[in-house]
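Example record for the data management plan.
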Amino acid sequence: MSSNQQLDNSRMSRFMLLIVMAGTTMLYSLTMTLVNIILPQLQGAMSASQDQISWIITLNVLATAIATPLTGSLVSLFGRRFVLIFCSASFTLATLACGMCDSLESLIFFRVLQGAVGAPLVPLSQATLLQSYPRDMHARVNAIYGMSVVVGPALAPSLGGYLSEMYDWRWVFFMMVPLGFLATLGNLKYVKDDGKQVGSRFDYLGFTLFSLAIICLQLVLDRGEREDWLDSIYITSLLTFMAISFYMFVVNTGFSAQPYINPKIFLNRNYVVGVLLVFVYGSLNFTPLVLLPSMLQSLKGYPDLLIGWILAMRGVGMIIGFGMAARMGRLDPRVGMILGMGTIGFSGWLMSLYDLNVTLTAVSWASAIQGFGCGILWVPLAVITFSTMPTNLFPAASAFFHLLRNLGTSVFVALSVTLLIRTSKVTYAELTEKLNPYEERLSIATVVGEGPIDWITSLPRLAVEVARQSSMIGYDNVFFFYALTCLFSLPVLSFVTIKKVEPK
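Corresponding structural encoding:
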């Protein structure tokens, strides 16, 4: 075989590996938003309360957060190829089982299993690609790969909404099974076995301590608003236990020969900046996917299918953003970061101007602009994070990178929901103070438009309208906070080292 033929075969193999890794990642990332669409149906089908059905999401996120840092240890113990094949196959079977469940308990169990075995797929897929391609191609590779990370979850609600309305909630799970089967076959064919690391050991104590800290954090975020945060003994106890567990985990990491999370990854300045920014990225990217559906459904009365199409516009914007980011590969990555952050912040400002009369076009445009910004932002963010990282640390570094992305989503969603509820309550109280029979201006026809208010017949309608207005103002406050987060994240870029040197 000639050298040209070998080169062509090598390029084709790497391209197919890229397709397989993108498909494997999309397999898992779809579950992050698909299940949210069918929660109302699941609640009715399982005869569950609001608190009970929320565990389908909460425990899946917990399992993912705990299992993600396992990636580096699993690769050392079993090899990259085995982990990818095992996780993709197990995830597919768990997804199939979710669609066949007839009880809430069994569904929660398989959702936990789904999160645990699926967690290593995203970081290990990224690490595999970064190790297989030269650094000068990482921008283009991350652009294609990034579409599977963030575009899949953005486009999924439209398909999930259609399947749940036309058929049944089970088909939201069943639709992922063929993709899982293909991903497993692709891993079997195109992923090379890099072998195990001789003498590798698993840090059981570090794993236990880290898991306890993450579990406490997620429970605080999930239950904080309901329990009134620090006014609750339950929340303060969880925070105390989390702090103790995390402190012991840090101490154990310093003394362990093979710690659960390799501390060497934090010696790289670009990586530290990158994980701080990906925490923000996780906040910015997925929070609208949580808030917009509830806003449009409760205040505008939009059906699931229409909400899905609005979120699909976000996915279209992302695809355009990724395409542009791939062409900006030779530019200073900070240019793409500033452009992406600025665009996302602008979309947040547009959303902060919403009122109850906001049109479908305005919501769709803001969603598309936001997707465009997220698409542009992802590629330079990934390039900055891993540009100076030694290749042997890619699995551990990528695992922690995606863990911070998921934690950013959890933390920011919890903060946003708290801000939404509290500002809505304050606004409602302020408005209702001015609505009473003794308010003279409400008896003036030119003010109210239809003559004096009949308080007996109009009070229920007034109460509903005040509640809607208060909720809308609450959402506006959250979106403005969203825009400010983008603005205040930009100074972190000043700590990036542009010179790309391979550490010795």
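Summary line stored alongside the record: The mean pLDDT is 83.
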